[in-house]
């Protein structure tokens, strides 16, 4: 186990022991993700190209005394939550982290899985609000922990679907499947091209000579702020107007013929072109063609900025600085749902130190701090430790 995972494991097991007076029965780890390209395409039945990363959430769990679930959150001053398995829990609006535990537990029960009471401790080392899917990783970890505790084995794609349902039905974000699926199915050394309609996964190996850099803009984001769900509704309206079940089935000629208003047209244009860019990027990655990959990433960012309108000025600045520092071999774009969060950059590993130095001298967060920079290799998906 690497030192980062070991430190997290030590923290989650110590928190568990301190609160419950004994060691957990098992610990589950579920990673965050970075999406290389394919943004807001997942809920349009389209394509995405994410990879799991090293930072993760861990859940330590043991069987509880009765039909209650008790949780302690190491990252929130050891805040606690308790709810019964007998009555459907309500949202815990004072502690948003608790909703992912409540929502996932309920979603598993609704999917027909009989769960025993449980004691849990949770801890993570994913930056919050960075667009690296800390909440999806939490739901996946909680789900796997409940299932393992009860000796229930289900396919990790099914686990991801239940976690997505928890986020949509309980938390209220009408998200796609990408974040939960990559946290559940990630593969070390690989990005995965995901067909979000069939859930087919295609390996996209990443050479050791290629580095992924993630730079946090310093502007934190949340999905439950209306913008995300509004974008989804606009996409669905565009698909309905063109007579297709999802924008995956539309093309630019159909869009031109549909004569939609300017905003709806722009939203649909982003999704239609982003799907093609994602397929092209997977091909470029397979060939080690970082020049084409960089061009596609730049087009993706521009499309998110101008057509989907989900970037913010600080992010546009950060991406421009990254693109200039990287040059033609590789590229950069915003990653994740938008309105803040992180940029992802791809470059030859040999360029990392130089690019990092340039970002540190040229970009400051809106608060004036140096940005958080992470250099990651694709890691594995959820596991029982
Ligand atoms: C968020 C959502 F949770 C994903 O489903 C996806 O839509 C992403 O934003 C944008 O690509 O992370």
Taken in chain order, the helices and strands follow as HEEEEEHEHHHEEEHHHHHEEHEE
What is the rounded Rg? 21 Å
What's the structural domain tally? 2
The rough form would be described as globular
Q: What is the CATH fold-level name of the largest domain?
A: Ribosomal Protein S5, domain 2
Mean pLDDT: 96
What can be said about the biggest beta sheet? 6 strands, mixed
CATH classification, class level of the largest domain: Alpha Beta
Task: List the ligand species.
Answer: 2-deoxy-2-fluoro-alpha-D-galactopyranose
CATH architecture annotation of the largest domain: 2-Layer Sandwich
For the biggest β-sheet, the strand order reads: 5-4-6-3-1-13
SS strand fraction: 15-25%
How far the N terminus sits from the C terminus, by CA atoms, comes to 10 Å
Number of helices: 11
């Amino acid at each position: 186990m690497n030192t980062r995972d070991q430190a997290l494991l030590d923290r989650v097991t110590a928190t568990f022991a301190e609160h419950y007076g004994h060691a957990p029965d098992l610990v589950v780890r579920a990673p965050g993700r970075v999406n290389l390209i394919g943004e807001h395409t997942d809920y349009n039945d389209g394509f995405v190209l994410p990879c799991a990363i090293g930072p993760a959430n861990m859940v330590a769990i043991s069987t509880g005394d009765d039909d209650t679930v008790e949780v302690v959150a190491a990252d929130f001053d050891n805040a606690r939550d308790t709810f019964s398995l007998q009555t459907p829990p309500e949202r815990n609006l004072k502690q948003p982290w608790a909703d992912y535990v409540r929502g996932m537990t309920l979603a598993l029960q609704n999917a027909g899985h009989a769960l025993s009471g449980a004691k849990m401790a949770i801890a993570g080392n994913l930056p919050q609000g960075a667009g690296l899917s800390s909440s999806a990783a939490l739901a996946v970890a909680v789900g796997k922990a409940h299932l393992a505790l009860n000796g229930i084995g289900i396919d990790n794609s099914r686990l991801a679907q239940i976690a997505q349902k928890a986020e949509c039905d309980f938390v209220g974000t009408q998200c796609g499947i990408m974040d939960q699926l990559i946290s559940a199915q990630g593969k070390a050394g690989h990005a995965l091209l995901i067909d979000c309609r069939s859930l087919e996964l295609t390996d996209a190996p990443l050479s050791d000579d290629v580095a992924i850099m993630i730079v946090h803009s310093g502007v934190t984001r949340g999905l439950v702020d209306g913008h995300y769900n509004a974008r989804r509704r606009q996409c669905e309206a565009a698909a309905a107007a063109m007579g297709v079940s999802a924008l995956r089935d539309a093309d630019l000629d159909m869009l031109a013929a549909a004569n939609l208003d300017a905003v709806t047209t722009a939203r649909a244009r982003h999704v239609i072109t982003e799907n093609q860019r994602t397929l092209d990027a997977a091909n470029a990655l397979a060939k080690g063609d970082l020049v084409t990959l960089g061009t596609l990433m730049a087009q993706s960012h521009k499309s998110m900025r101008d057509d989907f309108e989900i970037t913010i000025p600080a992010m546009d600045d950060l991406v421009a600085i990254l693109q200039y520092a990287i040059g033609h071999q590789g590229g950069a774009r915003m990653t994740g749902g938008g309105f803040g969060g992180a940029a992802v950059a791809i470059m030859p590993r040999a360029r990392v130190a130089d690019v990092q130095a340039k970002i540190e001298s040229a970009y400051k967060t809106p608060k004036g701090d140096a940005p958080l920079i992470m250099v990651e290799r694709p890691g594995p998906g959820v596991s029982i430790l």
